[in-house]
């Protein structure tokens, strides 16, 4: 479900086999699975607490990204992405998937690249605006952003005159 829907950041699950039960949690960073337990023997308040927590959780707590909304345009499903800025919120609508190959992996950065267009307050696309390429990915907390990495690569090559490797790879 996480690779098919750009709004999904994490998901919970339960598997039951005979009298054995497991709880699951997965996100792009990790998948956690509880030890199997006999749900007839375990204290029932733990099961009730778990299912009530899921039943009364808000969308964000259930792993949905609150900044992305699913919308229908004609017969096509699209996504609106809200960006909070100092000047106010901007909304971009995904008009085309450029790449979502990396989103197929169960764990990892889940990178997707979209073509988006700016939307007006009334919900219409800005016809005069140039399309914007939007990259959606998750990175480890100890990993530098790509712009920082690129700046370091350029800084390391400044003054050497050796740009052949960078030109060949498209940088």
From TrEMBL:
InterPro entries: Pkinase_fungal (IPR040976). Residues 1-153 form the Fungal-type protein kinase domain. It holds the Pfam family Pkinase_fungal. This is Fungal-type protein kinase domain-containing protein. It comes from Pisolithus microcarpus 441.
